[in-house]
Amino acid sequence: MPDALAIRTVLGDIAPGELGVCDAHDHLFLRSARLPGQELDDLPAAVAELRAFADAGGRAVAQWTPFGMGRRAGRLGEVSRTAGVHLVAATGFHQVAHEGELMTERVAGRLAELFVDELTRGMRNDDDPDGANGTARAGLIKVAGAFHGLDAHARAVMTAAAEAHHATDAPIGVHLEGGTAALDVLALLCEKLHVPPARVILSHLNRSPDARVHRQAAEAGAFLAFDGPSRTHHATDWRLLDALAALCEAGHADRLLLGGDTTTARARAAAAGGEGPGMPFLLTGLRPRVERELGERVAHAVFVDNPARAFAAGWGSR
């Protein structure tokens, strides 16, 4: 394993200190069987949103759209270069409801191989798991749990993700359905499959604002990603600062991440027809509140220091 850690972006590896202010969970492109007609597939709109984020002081975005969901892998380098923002892209696999039965059947039994290939050689076209690799490599493995538990599909995908992690040291980002099953995920990935907790990023925790679960996950050593404010999940937005404050008071400010999780064109801020709050609001609206309520040191940790640690990896043969 190399001595130096690096963050793998779509334009190449960078030192963790180069990442800068980071939106730790968002989407520039997204297609889901559960969101027909709401695709994020407009290239100029993606660039405009990313530029608006950059104008607000943003320097990096982790795009969690996994294989099979319209992530536009072949265009991410162009988008990153045009907007002047680092992009960390995802390989991985979502729930069957998002990916579809056909794609699930096409990749069954060979997910670990696909993940490693996309992390080390380059991402493929989303509709062709057997196609040629592109030039942009993934820097994150995205997986998903089920509601209040882990079904057979989730366990199979997470097992493949753990195998890919052990081969590459890549971080694993976990979609928690409704913010639930965080401890089930850690029991499988960390206790059974031996992934270090610090290589696991648990997302959507704001959707289930259970302070005890949050604290236990932080104590285990995982990173906790809160995404919002969100048009889709506004019902728990008002608890976000309380959840962050509770974790800081318990000594876990170094485990916290924040992201916008923009999943539809309507939720964008910069494009025509967008109603927000969008990617820029993470810095124009939420960061000032974090600074005021929790202090500038915590805000810097959440937006700069913690993402630099969460997404950094050794990238060598294990």
TrEMBL record:
Keywords: Hydrolase, Metal-binding. The keyword ATP-binding does not apply. Zn(2+) 1 binds at residues 25, 27, 142, 261. Pfam families: PTE (PF02126). Binds 2 divalent metal cations per subunit. The keyword Hydrolase applies. The modification N6-carboxylysine is found at residue 142. It comes from the Bacteria. Zn(2+) 2 binds at residues 142, 175, 204. Its cofactor is a divalent metal cation. PROSITE patterns: PHOSPHOTRIESTERASE_2 (PS51347). One of its GO terms (molecular function) is hydrolase activity. Belongs to the metallo-dependent hydrolases superfamily. Phosphotriesterase family. PANTHER family: PHOSPHOTRIESTERASE-RELATED (PTHR10819), PHOSPHOTRIESTERASE-RELATED PROTEIN (PTHR10819:SF3). This is Phosphotriesterase.
